[in-house]
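Batch manifest, entry 17 of 40.
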Amino acid sequence: MPEPASDQRTGTGFGKVLVFVYGIFALSATGRSSVQLGTKASEAPVAYSLSAFAAVVYIVATYALATDRRRLAIAAVGIELVGVLTVGTTSVLFPQDYADATVWSDYGNGYGYVPLVLPFVGLWWLWHTRRHTRRSPSGGPSGAPPGTKDS
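Output type: structure tokens
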């Protein structure tokens, strides 16, 4: 198995595609939830609030991936994964509790299951681009400048 890339920024290479997809979902979830909450919030407040929450998660993930904020990206993508799995499962098991669909309903069925796949791809990318800390034989940081070998 190849080693993950070292010192690669999350918003470069394939990361640009990922940031673009997250950005599309941030815009679409924000637009959808804004219209739903603004025009018919009383019809399905839970579903529309979940879509608004998803929008915030997508916005944060987009920002974090684009600006190489790894910890924030891991948190946002992790929350996204828990959200899509939780909402997906409950919407399948208890459809009567969802008066209308959310972004994450039925595991993102309305969006071609991209909401289900996206956090796995995001976490893979964050792992792939993680930075490696050089360790001295004693287990502590080597103090060697980046790009040099430990002596």
